[in-house]
Amino acid sequence: MSRKYLQSSCRICSNTTLHSFLDLGSMPIPNGFLTKEQLSQKENKYPLKACVCTSCWLVQLTHVIPAEIMFRNYVYIPSTSTTMVQHFESLSIESSKKAYLRKNNLVVDIGSNDGTLLSNYKKNGARILGVDPAQNLAKKANAQGIPTLAHYFTKELASAIVAEHGRAKIITATNVIAHIDNLHDAIDGVRTLLHPNGLFVMEAPYLVDLIDNNEFDTIYHEHLSYFAVHPLQKLFNMHNLHIIDIIKQPVHGGTIRVYVSPIDSNYSVHPRVENFITEEKVKQFHTLAPYRDFASRVKNMKKDLILLLKRIKQEGKFIVGYGASAKGNVLENYCAINSDILNYIVDSTPYKQGKYTPGTHIRICSEEKLLKDRPDYALLTSWNFTEEILEKNKKYREGGGQFIIPVPGVRIV
Ligand code: JHZ
Description:
Bound molecules: ligand JHZ
Number of strands: 17
Strand content: 15-25%
Structural class: alpha/beta
C-alpha cells in the first residue's frame, strides 16, 4: 500500500506522535462483499492497525483507505433491525424536544443511509434533507420521499445547503463522523449549517466501552476515529461549538449520543458531560496502559476462539455464522475463520444474501436457512444484537442449536 495513505499526524490536534497499539493484520475493506464471479479475482488488502495520539488521545487508524472505495455503493442498512428502527425513533423524539423543533424547521441527517431516521422527523412536520455519498441508498431514499443528496458532507456542501434551504435546527450524524477523514472540514460544515440555537447530535461507538468490552472488531477501515469525550470536546471547541449533553445508548456495544451547540447558544451544559471526562481520566485513557492491556486481551481472545472452533469442528459438528456484519468480517479475517469452519453465514440484509464475505469467502444466506438446516452452532458475529437475535431464534435454540458469542469473551449460550 502506498505511503500516501499513512496517517502521519493526529486528525484532531496534528500532533505527530501516534502510538500504534493494535495490529489486526491486512484485510479487505469490511463491506467489500463479493459475487461468485469475483471470488477468483485478486482482492485488495489494507493494513488494519490502531494508534493513539499522545497529545489529545484520539484513537485512530494508522492507514486511511480513500472514501471513494468504501462509500459510493453501500450495503449496510440499519433498518433491517427492529432495535435500530426503535433507536432512531427515540432519537428523533428526544432531539426534537431538546431543540424545541417546530413544524417546517429544517433537519439535516449526515450519512442518512436509507432515510429511516429522517422519516421520523418528517412524520412530525419538519423539513428534512439527507446527505449520503452512497448512490444506491440515496436513490432508494429519494424514491421513498426522503430528499437525499448523494454527496459527502463538507463545508462547501453545508454552505450550498444554507443558500438553498436555510439553517438547520437539528443536524444528526449517527455512525458517520468516525468515518470522515477531514474532521475539521466536516465540523466547520456543521457550524456553518447549524442554526444559532440549533443542535448537532452525533452518535458513535464509545471508546471506553470498545476497550473495556474487548470490541476489537469495531476497529475497521471505515472507522478512522474512535471517540472518547475528551478529544471530541477539543474538536468541537476548535470550531466554536461545545458539548451540552451526552446520553449513553446500548446500541453497537455502547454508543455515546453527543449533543453539541454553538458556544454562544441558549443551551446550558449538563453536568453529565464533566462526569464522562472525569471517568475517562480515572480510567487512565490519557495514558498508554488501557490500550496495551486491550491489545493483549484481544490476542488471547483470538486464541480462545480458534481453539474452541477447532475442537468443535473436530467433533464433526456443523457450524454457521450469524450476521454478515462489517465487524464479523474483521473477526473472521483476524482469526482466519473461513468456509472450512463456517459452512455459511445467515444475514437479514437482502443486498448481502447470495454474496461472499471479503477475504474469507463464506457464502451468505437468508436467516430462514438456520431453522431449515438446524446447525449445531451459530457463531454470532453480530453480537451487538444478541438480545434481538436470540429472541428471534427461540425455535432454533429450543431444538438444541447453540450460539457462540465471541465478544466480550468467548461463550456459548
Ligand atoms: P451491525 C455498522 O457495522 C456499519 P456492522 C457502520 N460502519 C458503523 O459505523 C457501525 O455499524 C457502528 C444482520 N442482522 O449493525 C444485519 C441479521 O442478520 O452490527 C447486519 O448485516 N439479523 C455504519 O456492519 C448485521 O447483522 C438480525 O436479526 O458491523 C449487523 O450489522 C439483526 C438484528 C441483524 O453493523
